Amino acid sequence: PVIPQPEDRQVESVCPYCGVGCATEYTVRDNSIVLCDGRESPVNHERLCVKGRYGWDYTMHPQRLTTPLIRRDDAYPKGPLSGDVVGTSSRKRRKPGGIVDYDEVLPAFREATWEEALDLVAERLTGIRSEHGSSALAGFGSAKCSNEEAYLFQKLLRAGLGTNNVDHCTRLCHASSVAALMETIGSGAVTNVFADVANADVCLVTGSNTTANHPVAATFIKEAVRNGTKLLCVDPRGHTLTDFASHFAQIRSGSDVAFYNAVMHVLIAEGLIDEQFVAERTEGFDELKKLVLRDFAPEQASSICGIEPDELRAIARTIGQPLEDGRRPRMLVFWGMGISQHTHGTDNARCLISLCLLTGNVGKPGTGLHPLRGQNNVQGASDAGLIPMVYPDYQPVSDPEIRAKFERAWGVELDPEPGLTVVEIVKGALGKSIRGMYILGENPFLSDPNINKVRAALSSLDFLVVQDIFLAETAEFADVILPASSYFEKDGTFTNTDRRVQVGRKVLDSPGEARQDWQVICDIARRIGLPMEYASSAEVFDEFAALTGHYRGLTHENLGSTGKLWPCPDPEHEDGVQILFGDRFPTASGRGKLVPCPYLPADELPDEEYPLILNTGRVLEHWHTGSMTRRSRALDAIQPNAFVAIHPDDLTRLGIVDGTRVQVSSRRGTIELEARADRTVEIGTVFIPFHFREAAANVLTTDALDPFGKIPEFKFCAVRVEAAAES
Ligand code: SF4
């Protein structure tokens, strides 16, 4: 136990992990965090999950980068495992815990001064621009960046380097959801906050293991169920919330469109839709009705999604049948990566939107569309313009009037062409159309699909600068590495899944020569001829907010200790606007669009050679590529190893014993890890968390993209599992 000392100080901030954005209070002693507690806030009511409560010690890890590093010379090939397939051979080359072996990697670099490193970055990036044009440059920002850092990073790429090739991991999580939301209701934001589930009669959770990925939000759902809300869970994999559900539809992987079209079929056929809402607030009903009535009767859809026709009808009636008091049920819909990370992810989201529009479940208390945002600032980084086709606040780069507005604000001429997305940039690097990259806080070598291809792409860049707090896997490909400040070492704003903008406050001083990220971006900008001078991150925020409609009423000062929601049109507004679109949608017609979606199968289906379906995702204790949580003692102790979860019946059929090592192979590579029997996994599928370098799930995944959101199909590819050879 931590005994409070008189010299301890307390700092109010926000959790650095997931999009729930829990309010925290850190107890600090001698520039070290010794304790974290939850604070009272509308977001978490003092609650924290295991990551928030115990996962802060990574910031004090001895492997923190403290000095700029420059690659020595070509004697050291770029990347950690040239010639190897990550996953099989890396097991021998990693220290316990699977994180980077610094002794192995560091000799490829030498320490440098900030002046030398920044000069080199500016010289090489401008050199590539002169020789190959601005379109040969690209940048990945991060959903771990603050709004201020994200705004400056995209400004540097656009106004300083002349390219819209700037993206971040939103492309890997909710790009398809945003594409569908923008198309249908004219805004990519959630329409209501998650805590309003307390006012819902029905809560639909689909494609989301909420207890693992948004744990504190899941407590609000459980509370609502205890108070009478009916919970519907739709997922190919069971999880803790399904124990609370009145219906759990364990659909076949990738069959969401068939399932939801069948539910809409029943709603329409049985007269359970909100006809007034459909008539007054939507368009496209006739086309949708025609498709779902013709092709998706429960008996037809059942053969695709695996749910019995009567169960499909029961679920539709729970959503649409009037309650005892005659009211229509109010429904709030939550979805996660299980919906979005498919080649038909946009179709999946379109179906959920249609379901809400048909039943009038938008714009009122207890209703709404809520794609649960993954990282702590994936909403804000997108709001701030870390997206290749839009400036801050989703203003299209292709619109001449909007472009002129940003040209006036930034004092330069801007590229009218939308830029490339994450996977397109990687493909561009492979084909040498992208030659130089600036990566700030992202780790595509573990997070992107088909990472042997990513490795080839990163290795073939003429120049790569990585700014990070650790020598994460991607940094091993860098020419220059810049030591950044961790979440706890700076002030900045972060926007949670509810659209709540909160101030993360500086808790600790940075180690060694590590610098604040926003200042490093400004240092590079000045060197390439773009003056960026700000006295503080609050001043950066003011510039960003003034260029938007939704953040306009917000300042660091008026956000207080628990933040405010955007839109906040008036600085005096108490908490921003909670429920959006009560009267009209921000579309050209003011109506929501119903988009009919035929069922399409996944890009790569199982066959004789690769008979199982791979599903990837996260576990409660770890976060994305593990660079933070695998350096947190408590979290790594609870979940130290990579594993593949397989249904016991499949294990028996394959002759594999629970707990033994297996090889999992796809057409793109092989990894080796422990097999775990797990009844929540659908028979015929396997689940692998993607946090573990030594058994990197993304060796196996496909880089096939959804055509609208350009999101890869992380949730579906064909694999084979076999016992590993004895070592
Ligand atoms: Fe942090 Fe999310 Fe856990 Fe809250 S639920 S403590 S924001 S990881």
Automatic annotation (TrEMBL):
MF GO annotations: 4 iron, 4 sulfur cluster binding; formate dehydrogenase (NAD+) activity; metal ion binding; molybdopterin cofactor binding; NADH dehydrogenase activity; nitrate reductase (cytochrome) activity
Catalytic activities: 2 Fe(II)-[cytochrome] + nitrate + 2 H(+) = 2 Fe(III)-[cytochrome] + nitrite + H2O
Transcription regulation listed as a keyword: no
Gene Ontology CC: one annotated term: membrane
Top enzyme category: oxidoreductase
Swiss-Prot/TrEMBL keywords: 4Fe-4S, Electron transport, Iron, Iron-sulfur, Metal-binding, Molybdenum, Nitrate assimilation, Oxidoreductase, Periplasm, Repeat, Signal, Transport
GO BP: any one term: formate metabolic process
Domain called 4Fe-4S Mo/W bis-MGD-type: residue spans: 8-63
Cofactor(s), names only, from the UniProt record: [4Fe-4S] cluster; Mo-bis(molybdopterin guanine dinucleotide)
E.C. number: 1.9.6.1
Role according to the record: Catalytic subunit of the periplasmic nitrate reductase complex NapAB. Receives electrons from NapB and catalyzes the reduction of nitrate to nitrite.
Family statement: In the C-terminal section; belongs to the prokaryotic molybdopterin-containing oxidoreductase family.
Protein name, entry field: nitrate reductase (cytochrome)
Gene giving rise to this polypeptide: fdhF_1
From-to range in the entire protein, with total length: 239 to 965 of 970
